């Protein structure tokens, strides 16, 4: 009985630890809460700003749709991270200091100008 309780406690502790790591499907496995960034998508195929800034590390991004056309948000060169909005989506991406390009990969959106700069410093 005692051995079963110890094994059960160990499994519970392991599950709680792994859950706290935040292993997500958005390219930020093991990230803890960090800087927050909100990016908006507009119906005229642009983001709500041409340039965004964030501190390095795990960046919590909220992606909102300020119109009615569906959009995506990707960080060029960062595989595994993609947000999609009908209304709102959230995700975390781990980025070191540098300059990145945000873009929408829906056909024609990037070519129409749906790109923005993300400066991480």
> What CATH architecture would you give?
Sandwich
**CATH homologous superfamily?**
Cupredoxins -  blue copper proteins
Number of helices: 1
Question: What's the CATH first level?
Answer: Mainly Beta
Strand order of the largest sheet: 2-8-7-4-5
Beta-strand content bin: 35-45%
Let me know the number of strands.
8
What pattern of helices and strands is seen along the backbone?
A: HEEEEEEEE
Percent helix: 10-25%
Question: What is CATH's topology name?
Answer: Immunoglobulin-like
Shape by Cα distribution: globular
Mean pLDDT: 82
Radius of gyration, rounded?
Answer: 18 Å
Structural class: alpha/beta
Number of domains: 1
What distance separates the N and C termini?
54 Å
Low-confidence stretches: 1-26
Question: Main beta sheet: strand number and arrangement?
Answer: 5 strands, mixed
Task: Write up this protein.
β4 (71-75) and β5 form a beta hairpin. This protein has one helix at 2-21, and strands at 36-41, 51-54, 57-65, 71-75, 83-85, 88-95, 98-103, 115-120. It is built from one helix and eight strands, in the order αββββββββ. With 121 residues, it is of the alpha/beta class. The strands form two sheets. It has a five-stranded mixed beta sheet, with no helix packed on it. It has a three-stranded mixed beta sheet with strand order 1-3-6, with no helix packed on it. The protein has a single domain (23-120), classed as Cupredoxins -  blue copper proteins (Immunoglobulin-like, Sandwich), CATH 2.60.40. Mean pLDDT is 82; it is low at 1-26.
């Amino acid at each position: 009985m005692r051995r079963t309780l110890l094994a059960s406690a160990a499994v519970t502790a392991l599950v709680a630890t792994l859950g706290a790591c935040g292993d997500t499907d958005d390219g930020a496995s093991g990230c803890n809460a960090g800087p927050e960034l909100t990016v908006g998508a507009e119906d005229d195929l642009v983001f709500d700003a041409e340039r965004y800034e964030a501190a390095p590390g795990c960046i919590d991004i909220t992606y909102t749709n300020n119109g009615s056309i569906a959009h995506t948000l990707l960080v060029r060169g960062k595989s595994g991270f993609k947000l999609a909005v009908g209304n709102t989506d959230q995700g975390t991406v781990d980025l070191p200091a540098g300059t990145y390009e945000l873009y929408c990969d829906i056909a024609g959106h990037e070519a129409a100008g749906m790109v923005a700069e993300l400066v991480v410093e």
